[in-house]
Amino acid sequence: MLTALWPLFAAASVVAFFTILFTGRYPRILFAFTTGVLRWSWRVGYYYFGALGTDRYPPFSLGAVPGYPARLEIAHPERLSRGLVLVKSWLLLLPHYLFLALVPLALRLAEWWGGLIWLLAVIAAVVSSLVGPGTMLLFTGRYPRHMFDTIVGVDRWILRVAAYAALMTDEYPPLRFDRGGTEAGRETEADRP
After folding, report:
1. Helix 28-47 and helix 2-23: axis angle, to 10°?
2. Spatial separation of the C-alpha atoms in residues 174 and 180, rounded to whole Å
């Protein structure tokens, strides 16, 4: 279902481009849709090889799902820069695209859940099970903390770049990933003993 939604996401972004260019506003209905596609994709990625962060199957929903461990919220902007819309997705993000292309961990930008990041998740699930007690995801359900932090940090970075590239915000994403299991004080399943 997500595969069918991504071409619609691209089409909605094109319509949003022209609407922002002429009015300075991102239409709410398109914003809700594009946020929903990113949100659902993040939940699937968090469940699958984007992070292997939960055993809870991701719900089939574009909306927010309270209580699901992978959450994504993007505030609808009242106004967006009409001039930035012309350079935001390609020129201003060029440093991110170059860095993401050079760092194999983050190659997932082009193929949302592909690239080497899924390999890190597989390593966390299988190879780390050979490391020793307390770090065995496969056999004990424990996720190596440093690996989880790195994977989720890269995921957060890519989602910020994707939201900026889709014209959903004028806030430029930092050229870094945030290491850490939680964001904004929220606890994840990996934080629980």
Report:
1. 140
2. 16
pLDDT, one tens digit per residue, over 6-32 is 999 999 999 999 999 999 999 999 999
| Residue entry with tokens 């014209």 | 167
Average pLDDT value over all residues in the chain: 80
How far is Cα of residue 86 from the mean position of the Cα atoms in its chain? 23
Taking only the tens place, the pLDDT of each residue in 127-162 is: 554 543 334 466 666 677 777 887 888 888 889 999
CA distances (Å), origin 12, targets 7, 33, 49, 172: 9, 8, 27, 21
DSSP string, 82-124: TTGGGTIIIIITHHHHHHHHHSGGGGGGTSTT-SHHHHHHHHH
The residue extents of the domains of the chain are 2-63+74-191
Predicted confidence at residue 53, as pLDDT, reads 85
Q: Kindly report the CA angle at 108 between 20 and 127, in degrees rounded to 5?
A: 155
- Which of 6, 4, 8, 15 lies closest to 167, judged by CA? 15
* Contact call for residues 49 and 113 (beta carbons, < 8 A): yes
Q: Is the dihedral of CA 152, 156, 161, 166 positive or negative?
A: positive
Task: Write the CA distances from 102 to 106, 109, 118, 172, integer angstroms.
Answer: 8, 12, 17, 20
Unique residue bearing structure tokens 């902007």: 77
